[in-house]
Specification:
The structure holds two protein chains of two kinds. Chain A has a single domain, classed as TIM Barrel (Alpha-Beta Barrel). Helices cover 32% and strands 16% of the residues of chain A. Chain A is built from ten helices and 13 strands. In chain A, the strands form three sheets. An eight-stranded parallel beta barrel of chain A has the order 1-2-3-4-9-10-11-13, surrounded by eight helices. In chain A, strands 5-6 form a two-stranded antiparallel ribbon. In chain A, strand 5 (163-166) and strand 6 (171-173) form a beta hairpin. In chain A, helix 8 crosses helix 9. By secondary structure, chain B is α/β, with parallel strands linked by helices. Chain B has two domains: 14-276 and 369-435, TIM Barrel (Alpha-Beta Barrel), CATH 3.20.20; 294-366, no CATH class. Chain B is built from 14 helices and 15 strands. Chain B has helices spanning 39-51, 83-93, 110-123, 138-141, 155-170, 220-229, 240-252, 278-292, 295-306, 340-354, 358-366, 375-387, 406-418, 431-435; strands at residues 14-18, 56-59, 67-68, 71-72, 98-104, 128-133, 188-191, 196-199, 212-216, 232-235, 265-270, 272-274, 331-332, 371-373, 393-396. In chain B, helix 2 (83-93) packs parallel to helix 3 (110-123). The radius of gyration of chain B is 22 Å and the shape is globular. Chain B starts with 13 loop residues before the first strand and ends in a 12-residue tail after the last helix. The chains are: A alpha/beta, B alpha/beta. The interface between A and B is large, with 66 and 64 residues. Chain B: It holds the Pfam family Bac_luciferase. Chain B: Belongs to the NtaA/SnaA/DszA monooxygenase family.
């Protein structure tokens, strides 16, 4: 494959197979306060041009904005490779519908779907539904974990080869390969099986923002990608270490967890020198949502390189302060430089989000060991 | 009810494409049958419908896999995607085609569903439609937080309040200030028997104001609900006589809600089989019926009426001598047979009169094919239905995925267009404009 690529790359260091740990990059494309498709399509294509792993689109019942999963479904046919990760909340939604919608996003994107699991904490959100009062944050994250578990079970409730189309017996499916999930959580039960056949990735990628302490257990148990917020690499490393260790406690291979540092980026100052100290420690401004980088795209590339080089994180999830401007500068400046340094891929060698993230397609929990699923 | 077409403007037919469903109408054994789940199948049928200038594309829904004798039903197509998510993606590959999702009002909440529908309407620039269905069974409820909580009698009460609440949410933003793309959210508060909610909606009023509302079902409550609240009714009445009766009855109910008869479009679900001659079309139709009713499916259809395990019977042999069990719970997740004893008696009489086997009897009684003939003959029949007050249009249900409407679009649509009975180009951008529906009042906007 490398023979067909442009020649300027060092032979020993092809970007799709760097000798060191791969770098993973994602970007948020919300914040435009737009309801038609054009702006979202444009930003997702821009991120795709930068060969980013995935884009996220925030969502909440608490502030204006469209349904994020629908928006990224609209984006799917207008893009080819980039992963699509909408925020999906688990507090006032039906786990069965959530599982089906995320699976369907995976079908329409041909294996590029993920979901960023979130909860609805406010009494105001509870009143939009009028079904139950706002629960405590720990209880909501406990429930989110149960929703993630039932979603995975429902995705597995069809084995990959359940559809047989056997004309001799008149059977369309082998119902022995469809499974009831019979999930009983603290607040809900689901019988199954899913109405949607197993999605292309087996399990779409589960992303959890572990900034809120109560979400960390859910992240360690269920997330493929975890977002962490830290002001310094050593802080990030400590959080990563804890997450991996908890994941191992749950019987998971900690090497399958991708930890990304979440960072808001303001590249509006162009190439002005970065503020002292920011190269290694993005400053958390008071009242902000987390670490905030302000400076030029080149210095951001250096920051990403140095954090990633210490092994503190596997990559970054970047939220542009000014959506269009900062994503453009990120892709054309920062990402281009990282690619030039052979620290980041120049194209997507794989077709699915799991392939981008070097995550295996999960085995089906209901399939007999050694089966084809 | 007759219409003098020489004096009035030509009544135009409305057409919709139903993606093949998870029942025996859909033939999967045919070598041309493609995936029921790959996006490419949805894209192909939607593009065909748009090429044919159809009003809308229609997706059904089922929230629990059907069961028979306590086991997942395995003879028909099984598995489908979640409707609103697929339609959002189809908005990217179509420009004018309406996009209709069937979504259950029992196992959803108004705030979230109204938001998803408004989002689809924005993303498609005014092409969203919602087919409101209700169910109350505990069987489906086992997949949801609340279980089967709703009395059967309350289904339409909930649906009506659900739709009314959704409309309040869709109207809740202010009109945009001059030069601004969107207005701003105003607080809403709804207090009713089914819903007690308040707050702000996250989505501005969408291009159609309100997505088009479809109601499927012919029951008394269904007709009344449609007359009060729906833009389109998806009916099963297939014959000209039954269609006219249904049409007249349903349209007569609109006045008491202050609505014009044209405000509700009556669209029966129909199948079409074409041939170069009538004889060829009939032969094809018989072939399709045989594909639809496999030997295994014939026994299953029989068991659905009888409510008994009849797997020992030969599909090519005579009907069982035993009577149906009217209290059977053999079948789950589909509409029950109203009076099994009467149906069984009818089937027996037919079987004896014509000397039909089990499979032949099932083919004869269950396979529904509405229009069989040459393209000219079918175009004439469809036009007659619409001109003489039996329908405003049709929801075409193809038996093949995704190519089942190719022939209709290539051979019948041009004839309808020649007759002046169907559009040759889309005139407007929104589904409401295709259907000739009035813009919904923006309640509270005058304040």
């Amino acid at each position: 494959m490398s023979a067909t690529r442009p020649p300027h790359r060092p032979r020993h260091n092809p970007p799709h197979n760097p000798p060191h740990r791969p770098l993973y990059l994602a970007a948020e494309i919300g914040g435009q306060r737009s309801f038609d498709a054009a702006g979202y399509v444009e930003l997702a294509r821009l991120a795709e041009r930068g060969a980013l792993d995935f884009v996220t689109l925030q969502d909440s019942f608490a502030r204006p904005g469209p349904d994020a999963l629908a928006v990224l479904s609209r984006v799917a046919p207008a893009t080819e490779r980039i992963g699509l990760v909408p925020t999906v909340t688990t507090t006032h939604t039906e786990p069965f519908h959530v599982s089906a919608a995320v699976a369907t996003l995976d079908w329409v994107s041909r294996g590029r779907a993920g979901w960023l699991v979130d909860v609805s904490t406010t009494p105001a959100e509870a009143r939009l539904f009028g079904r139950r009062p706002a629960a405590s944050v720990p209880a909501l994250w406990q429930e989110a974990g149960e929703v993630a578990e039932v979603a995975a079970r429902l995705w597995d409730s069809w084995e990959d080869d359940a559809e047989i189309r056997d004309t001799s017996t008149g059977r369309f499916i082998d119902r022995g390969k469809l499974h009831y999930v019979d999930f009983e959580g603290a607040t809900f039960t689901v019988r199954g099986p899913s109405i949607v056949p197993r999605p292309p990735q087996g399990h779409p990628v589960t992303v959890v923002d572990a900034t809120e302490g109560h979400s960390r257990e859910t992240a360690a148990r269920h997330a493929d990608v975890v977002l962490v917020r830290a002001g310094r690499p050593d802080e990030a490393a400590a959080i990563s270490e804890k997450l991996r260790s908890r994941a191992a406690d749950h019987g998971r291979d900690p090497g399958t967890l991708r930890v990304l540092a979440a960072l808001t980026i303001d590249l509006g100052d162009g190439e002005r020198p970065v503020e002292p100290g920011l190269e290694s420690a993005p400053r958390t401004t008071a009242g902000d949502t987390g670490p905030h980088y302000r400076g030029g795209p080149v210095d951001l590339a250096d920051l990403i390189t140095s954090w990633h080089g210490t092994g503190a994180v596997d990559g970054f999830h970047l939220t542009p302060a000014e959506p269009r401007r900062d994503l453009e500068r990120l892709v054309n400046g920062t990402v281009a430089l990282l690619q030039h340094r052979s620290l980041f891929r120049t194209f997507h060698p794989g077709g699915t989000l799991r392939e981008h993230l070097s995550l295996a397609r999960p085995a089906n929990q209901y399939a007999p060991a050694g089966g084809t699923s | 009810m007759t219409t003098d077409t020489s004096r009035t403007a030509r009544k135009r037919i409305h057409l919709a494409a139903h993606f093949p469903g998870v029942n025996s109408t859909t033939v999967w054994t045919d070598p041309r049958s493609k995936s029921q789940i790959d996006f490419s199948s949805f894209e192909a049928l939607a593009r065909t419908a748009e090429r044919g200038k159809f009003d809308f594309f229609f997706l059904a829904e089922g929230l629990r896999l059907r069961e028979h004798k306590g086991l997942i039903h395995d003879l028909d197509v099984v598995g489908r995607p979640e409707s609103l998510t697929v339609l959002s993606a189809l908005a990217a590959v179509t420009d004018r085609l309406g996009l209709a999702a069937t979504v259950n009002a029992t196992f959803n909440e108004p705030y979230e569903l109204a938001r998803r529908l408004a989002t689809l309407d924005h993303l498609s620039a005014g092409r969203a439609a919602w087919n409101v269905v209700t169910s109350s069974d505990a069987f489906t409820g086992e997949n949801f937080r609340r279980g089967g909580y709703l009395d059967r009698a309350d289904r339409y009460t909930r649906a009506a309040e659900f739709v009314a609440t959704a409309r309040e949410l869709w109207d809740s933003w202010t009109p945009p200030a001059p030069g601004a793309p969107y207005g701003t959210p105003r607080p809403f508060a709804h207090s009713g028997r089914q819903f007690e909610i308040e707050g702000e909606f996250t989505v501005p009023r969408s291009p159609q104001g309100h997505p088009v509302v479809i109601q499927a079902g012919d029951s008394e409550e269904g007709r009344e609900f449609a007359a009060s609240a729906a833009d389109v009714i998806f009916t099963r009445h297939g014959t000209l006589e039954a269609g006219r009766e249904f049409y007249a009855d349903t349209k007569s109910r609109l006045a008491k809600y202050g609505r014009d008869p044209d405000d509700l479009k009556i669209m029966p679900g129909v199948t079409v089989v074409l041939g170069d001659s009538d004889a060829e079309a009939q032969e094809r139709a018989a072939g399709i019926r045989r594909q639809q009713v496999s030997p295994q499916n014939a026994i299953l259809a029989l068991e659905q009426v009888w409510g008994r395990d009849l797997s020992a019977y030969d599909p090519d042999g005579p009907l069982p001598g035993i009577d149906p069990d009217p209290d059977s719970a053999l079948v789950q997740g589909r509409v029950r047979i109203g009076d099994p004893l009467a149906v069984a008696a009818k089937w027996r009489a037919l079987s004896e009169a014509k000397g039909l086997s089990i499979r032949q009897t099932v083919i004869e009684t269950t396979a529904r094919q509405s229009f069989i003939g040459t393209p000219e003959g079918v175009a004439e029949s469809l036009d007659t239905f619409v001109r003489t007050g039996a329908a405003d249009g049709f929801i075409l249900v193809p038996h093949l995925t995704p190519g089942g409407l190719d022939d209709f679009v290539d051979r019948v649509v041009p004839l309808l267009q020649e007759r002046g009975a169907f559009r040759t180009e889309y005139e407007g951008a929104t589904l409401r404009s295709h259907l000739g529906l009035p813009a919904p009042e923006w309640k509270g906007s005058a304040a």
